[in-house]
Amino acid sequence: MTEPAQTPEPPYFAVIFTSMRREQPGDGFAEADERLFALAQDQPGFLGYETADTDGLGITVSYWESETAIAAWKAVTEHRAAQDQGRARWFDSYQVRVARVERAYEFTRPTS
Amino acid sequence: MTEPAQTPEPPYFAVIFTSMRREQPGDGFAEADERLFALAQDQPGFLGYETADTDGLGITVSYWESETAIAAWKAVTEHRAAQDQGRARWFDSYQVRVARVERAYEFTRPTS
Lengths: 112, 112
Description:
homodimer, alpha+beta, Alpha-Beta Plaits, four-stranded antiparallel sheet
């Protein structure tokens, strides 16, 4: 999961999920995280996923073809259950930002 | 720096910077990262900054009032020098995505 996402030419959409994890998030957090990633990959319109975590601050960005795809993913039953668990047990706070990617560029080190 | 950003109501803009750091990024990386954060905070139109890193995959999201503010920040001399260093020494690859945040919502755990 710690790989950069490969996404097509813009426009597409990004969901920026920033979370502060509780010191003791309790059972099931890591497993749910893996499971959600697997589920998301099977969703229509899924383009990619990136996640990193430092000292309890997590940033997960998922990329989607459309707002419709994002809404469908948000409503998936197992994802909704995870959202409930997140509020009940895992996170002290989180923010979700839905954004339209307008332009993108990249750098790759030339092989020498 | 490992704090969630506090941003106003959308719309505003996000720059999603995803990087794969080299195994030996060399001197100056951590110092430059700190310095860039301090510089960015003083830029007109800067709204916030979030960063996390797992196993060399870094995700940094900065938030801005406008595309104009993003362009101005990209052109700051010291920032340009850091971009050059990033390509020369610090990163194997990176991606920059400029996105317009359309909507946002958040959760904060009630104090009990």
